[in-house]
Give the backbone structure.
Amino acid sequence: MRTFEFSRAADVGQAIALHARSPDTVFLAGGTTLLDLMKLDVMQPAHLVDIHKLKLDQIDVQSDGRVRIGAMVSNTDLARHAHIQQHYPALSQALLSGASTQLRNKATTAGNVMQRVRCGYFRDGISPCNKRVPGSGCAAIDGLNRNVHAVLGGSKDCIAAHPSDMCVAMIAIGATIHAQGARGVRDIPFADFHLLPGDTPWKEHALATDEMITHITLDAPMPGSRSAYLKLRDRGSYQFALASSAVIVARDGNDIRDIRIALGGVSTKPWRARDAEAMLRGKPLSAALIRDAAAASMAGAQSYGQNGFKILLGQQAVARNLSRLVA
Ligand SMILES: Cc1cc2nc3c(=O)[nH]c(=O)nc-3n(C[C@H](O)[C@H](O)[C@H](O)COP(=O)(O)OP(=O)(O)OC[C@H]3O[C@@H](n4cnc5c(N)ncnc54)[C@H](O)[C@@H]3O)c2cc1C
Ligand code: SF4
C-alpha cells in the first residue's frame, strides 16, 4: 500500500473542507471496499478523510411515511431495524444476503451505494481495463466474464455488473440520494445516481468530486404490498449475485394493483424492469403472465460468452420471486 495523508472529520462541513484540500482525496467510511482496493493498488488516493465518526447514523421514519437513512448507518443496523423489516422486507433481505456479518457491521449505507465493481481485470491492476485506465481496453468482453459481468446495460467499453444487493431493493422501492458539497446540498433520484458505462466507464455515479452522500430517503412503502429479495448464486452465502431480483407487489383479489421489479447481478447498474411492470399492472395473475413478464424484464440482454446463462437466470430470479410472493 502506498503512503497517504489521513484526516478525521468531526462534522459534514469539515469533511467537505478537508476533501477540498487536494484533488486526490477520498472519503473513508467502513473501508471494506476502499482499503481492499488500496492494498491492491487499484485506488491510490493521496488523502483519506475518515467520515465514520460523523453523526449520520440515524434512521428516521417521517410523518409522510418516507424513511431517512444516514449515510453512516451500517448495513447490519439498516437490515435489522424493526420498521425496515416490517415495511421494506426486500431491503432487509437484500442487505442480509450480502457479504458476511463482520463486513455488514462495518459497511455503511453510502459506502454500499458507492462500492466499486468486482471484475477481476479491474482488481488485478495489470489487465486492460477502461474503468481503471481509460482507453486501455476491456479484457472481460472476450475473457472471463461468467460471474460478475452484465448482460444488460453493457457497452463495448465495459460490462462489469453493479455488485450491490442493497441498491437493487432501493431502486425497486424508489429513493432519493441527498448530497452535500462546497456549493450546497442537492437531491439526486436514486434511479439517476448510477451511470451506464457507455464510453466513459470510469464515471460510475452522478456525484460531483467535491460532494458526499449525507442521507438516503426511501419512498413510502407501497400500500398493501408484499416484497422480497431473491439472490441466485453459486453458493448460499458470502458470494455476489449471479442474478437477483427485488419484487414489490400489491394485489386487488387476483389482479395486480401495482408492482415494482428490479434486477441485480445481470446489469451494469441497479436495473428497474419498467416494461415488465407495465405488462403486469392491472392484470389478473397467471403463470403465463408471470413467464412473459419475466422474459420482458430481461429484454435487450446480450450474452458475452460465458455469462449468457444469466439471460435465463435473470428471468428465473423474477419469476420465482414473484410466484413465491403471490402464492
Ligand atoms: C469479501 C466481500 C464480500 C462482499 N459481498 C457483498 C455482497 O454479497 N453484496 C453486496 O452488496 N456487497 C458486498 N460486498 C461489498 C460491501 O457491501 C461494500 O464493501 C460496502 O458496502 C462498502 O461500504 P463501506 O462503508 O465499507 O465503504 P468504503 O469502503 O469506506 O467506501 C467505498 C467507496 O465509497 C466512498 N464513500 C463512502 N462513503 C461515502 C459518502 N458518504 N459519500 C461519498 N462517498 C462515500 C468511498 O470514498 C469509497 O470510494 C462485499 C465486500 C467484500 C469485501
Ligand atoms: S468489464 Fe469494465 S471493469 Fe472489467 S475489464 Fe472491462 S472495463 Fe474493466
